[in-house]
Design a protein that fits this description.
The chain is mainly α. It has a domain of 172 residues. It contains 24 helices and no strands. Helix 7 packs antiparallel against helix 8, helix 15 packs antiparallel against helix 16 and helix 22 runs antiparallel to helix 23.
């Protein structure tokens, strides 16, 4: 009762304004600018403030009407976060507990600021119990400090020493977690740079790995251990040691399995995705397919993670010549009800996959009748071949892939003049717009196409081919999710495919 009395006094004194949130009730009443704003935002109608202000009021983003609405809308969204339902099946116990203790920690701070010390201490003890179970070092340190102070005010030496010990012990754990995060972030910060720029990182990453192993041996912290496995995964990926990468990912998965209280869906998804990446680079269809079908069950179907995983699955099928499977994977993803809600940029990437799959059907259908059954009436070759194809600068690689696809179709048609026009276009890209460091493999492939054009598409007349081909295979395919690294089919395979079709 003492707690209730303390809380009621605060509520009476401070009072409570109307709570403005987006809940089921408010969203059912559509006749408001808030709901109009919310619905359009969820539908992806706005790219910037100009789009939003014009849609809502037909005014500029600087207009007071729009600025006030946006400010109030933001506050309502933030208020809503306090009332989110975290008890969803997709939410892990770890994430649910972390959300709950931090929300309660905010209450502790409010209680303390209003001198409700008894109630604050009581709530802090509850938070501490949960935090010790999940090893939330940051929360344990905060709660222990509050409880240590409260024990001192009550002349409670016994509990003072208990909370003092927790404070000191978990401050060390917290310091280790912060250090592990720093090392992981240093890797991630440089991970997506070109090969030449990652040489320095490769020199340092061994030191980072050793430091993380050392921390994991001293401190039983899921954060430290996750960061250790992640950095080791990145190390082996950069070294192209994909078997070792698989081994690390499996160890991480086992850690999660053996410590279910630390299960985090995003962490598991990262390791599962990395495993899929390893199978792609190893071109191991058998084990990759087994892994994919198992892992897909753990992702919410239609989520961004699910679609990203499906992309790796599709690429694995394409890179291992499992084209029937590739078509099935593509259909499974592209016909999903949530596919249309993906970003326009990401849908464009899947459009490119569709074009290449149509090429596979057209070029290989004669020798594989099953492929012909997958032919879609909606695809018009003539329309695609006459498409000028021009993506924005930040999507230039999409233009390249589509032009290459046009070349593939024209090879089937023996349309050599049209091929030459497109090879010249790719040459221009290679010379002016494609950085050698980022697009090394692509540039070598373009050089091969140039030699083909010079030889007037007569294979016997080819020269200087081995130079560019060797440069291509000397730098192995590496896809880390970057558009610059995307190869729908490996470039060496594309080159050999073109030669075989010309011979035919």
């Amino acid at each position: 009762m003492k707690n209730l009395i303390e809380i009621s006094k605060i509520v009476t004194k401070k009072k409570v304004r109307k709570i403005e949130i987006f809940d089921d009730h408010s969203l059912k009443h559509k006749n408001s600018k808030f709901n109009e704003f919310y619905a359009a935002l969820m539908a992806g109608k706005f790219k910037n403030d100009r789009d939003a202000s014009n849609f809502l009021y037909g005014c500029s983003p600087t207009d007071d009407k729009y600025r006030q609405l946006k400010s109030r809308f933001r506050k309502r969204l933030l208020n809503t976060l306090f009332f989110l339902d975290v008890n969803l099946p997709s939410t892990s116990n770890y994430d649910r507990a972390y959300y709950s203790v931090n929300k309660d920690w905010t209450l502790v701070k409010i209680l303390l600021s209003n001198n409700a010390n008894h109630t604050a201490a009581s709530l802090a003890r509850q938070i501490l119990t949960t935090s010790l179970k999940f090893k939330f070092a940051d929360v344990i340190v905060n709660c222990s400090r509050i409880l240590r102070r409260y024990a001192a005010s009550q002349d409670d030496e016994k509990n003072y020493e208990v909370y003092d010990q927790y404070s000191k012990q978990y401050q060390n754990v917290l310091d280790a977690e912060i250090r592990s995060e720093e090392l992981y972030q240093r890797v991630v910060m440089n991970y997506h740079k070109s090969h030449s720029k990652t040489a320095d990182l490769l020199e340092k990453i061994d030191t980072y790995c050793d430091a993380l192993v050392g921390l994991s041996e001293i401190y039983d912290s899921p954060i430290v251990i996750y960061n250790m496995y992640l950095v080791w995964t990145y190390r082996y990926e950069m070294l192209h040691d994909f078997n070792a990468m698989l081994e690390v990912c499996s160890k991480a998965e086992n850690y999660i399995k053996e410590n279910p209280q630390y299960y985090q869906s995003d962490k598991l998804a990262t390791f599962q995705m990395k495993k899929m990446s390893a199978y792609l680079h190893l071109r191991d269809w058998k084990n990759g397919k087994i892994n994919a079908e198992k892992c897909l069950q753990s992702f919410p179907e239609g989520s961004e993670t699910w679609f990203l995983f499906m992309e790796y699955y599709l690429l694995l099928a394409l890179h291992t010549d499992n084209f029937i499977n590739a078509l099935a994977i593509f259909k499974r993803a592209s016909t999903h009800s949530k596919f249309k809600k993906l970003s326009a940029n990401y849908r464009e990437k899947w459009k490119i996959y569709d074009i290449y799959l149509n090429y596979i059907i057209e070029s290989m259908g004669e020798s594989n009748p099953v492929l012909l059954t997958q032919r879609r009436k909606s695809f018009r070759i003539s329309r695609f071949l006459n498409d000028p194809i021009l993506y924005p600068k930040d999507q230039r690689i999409y233009t390249v892939h589509m032009v290459v696809a046009q070349i593939l179709f024209f090879v089937e048609k023996k349309g050599y003049n049209a091929i030459t026009e497109r090879v010249d276009r790719l040459k221009s890209y290679a010379n002016r717009q494609l950085k050698k460091e980022e697009y090394h493999r692509l540039i070598q492939f373009i050089r091969l196409l140039q030699q083909l054009a010079k030889a007037d598409y007569q294979i016997d007349n080819l020269s200087n081919v081995s130079k560019y081909y060797n440069r291509l295979i000397e730098t192995p395919f590496l896809y880390r999710g970057l558009n610059a690294e995307l190869e729908i089919l490996p470039y060496e395979k594309l080159w050999n495919l073109i030669l075989s079709r010309l011979k035919a």
